[in-house]
Amino acid sequence: MLTFLGFAMVMTFMYLIMTKRLSALIALIIVPITFALIGGFAAGIGPMMLEGIGKLAPTGVMLMFAILYFALMIDSGLFDPAVRAILRMVKGDPLKVSMGTAALALIRERVLKRLQGQRPAAVAHRVVHGGQHYFAPTLVTQRVIDELRGYIPLAPLHQPFPLKAMSLLMQQHPDVPQVAVFDTAFHRTAEPVEQMFALPWSAWERGVRRYGFHGLSYHYMGHALPERHGDAARGRTIVAHLGSGASLCAMQGLKSVATTMGFSALDGLMMGTRCGALDPGAVIYLMQIEKLSLDEVARMLYQDSGLLGVSSVSPDPRVLLPLEHENERVRTALALYVRRIVREIGALAAVLGGLDMLVFTAGIGENNAELRRLVCVLLGWLGLNLDQDANASHAAVISTSASRVLVGVEPTNEEWIAASQATRLLAQG
User: Fold this and answer.
1) CA spacing 20 to 30 A to 240: which of 7, 328, 357, 362?
2) How far is CA 76 from the centre of its chain?
């Protein structure tokens, strides 16, 4: 926690003075005091300041000159080009840099503590988008990192963070092998007709296609479901990965046949903050008629839509469900969320030629009995018959014995898949 507060304090100080919101001298006084209060050191601030004044008085004059010189450089505009470049890079939010760095440092500290002095054999990274070139587990090199950065626009909420972690580890632990595993890889088994858009053929050749995501989760289902349900899992199965991001995958023979996400992690189901499937004409309208910039549209679709956007309250169903009867927007948001899931399950069942098993996974799918109930009630025409008690207790099987479709709940484990793939790659030499 102290590491996080230290990084946050330094970066807050730098942000305030570089953006000229406070003078360097005022920031140097206010920021440390504020973070000391946050850290619970209120009782010791007074004695600490008196002791510090006594010890640092000889260097105080030099420090004052340094601060004034730094402030003069800021006022003269010396750092303005760098500030503008940083602000463009992080789309107006410089705290993303500091928070990301602090988070990685905190994670590294905790991992090393758990290892208790042991050297890690390898580090596996879940990478959301592998594009058309990366679908097998891959040893991380600087060239790989540089190429994967090209896919950041296709998954801006996820792609940057493993790449930052790779770079940091490469600098600090160059002797530890790193392996990238890709969410898009699992869906390579789908037929070309499921991967293609109805665009000119040249778009397909350039890599504009349906990639699909949450592949590590679905890959894990390919291991877990046969262990729990036997050969029944090898039939016509739809897995509903419902979390802050959400998608469905139609599986047969434990392989991906079709999925709801496409070129980017925006497509398909309505999500916590993402819009899901959208008429591209709406994007053209927003930019051409309403004059929204590319960055404004991207922020709307990725961060301001979905459950949050429609409800104007929260992206979390746990917050929304208790408000359903008193807030019309919340009620509409939940109804739309469920409708999109039901609609897409129906479409995937048609692709499979029927449905033998429906499995819920991920944060919402595993833990929200009410949303599972709402979805299953609307899928009654497929022969689903829900066991209400089993559903309420999040049992592994939540359908009745009379149900034509087995309905299950299966916790996912993407980390295990990432680790096992990395282990196999390194074992191959």
Assistant:
1) 328
2) 40
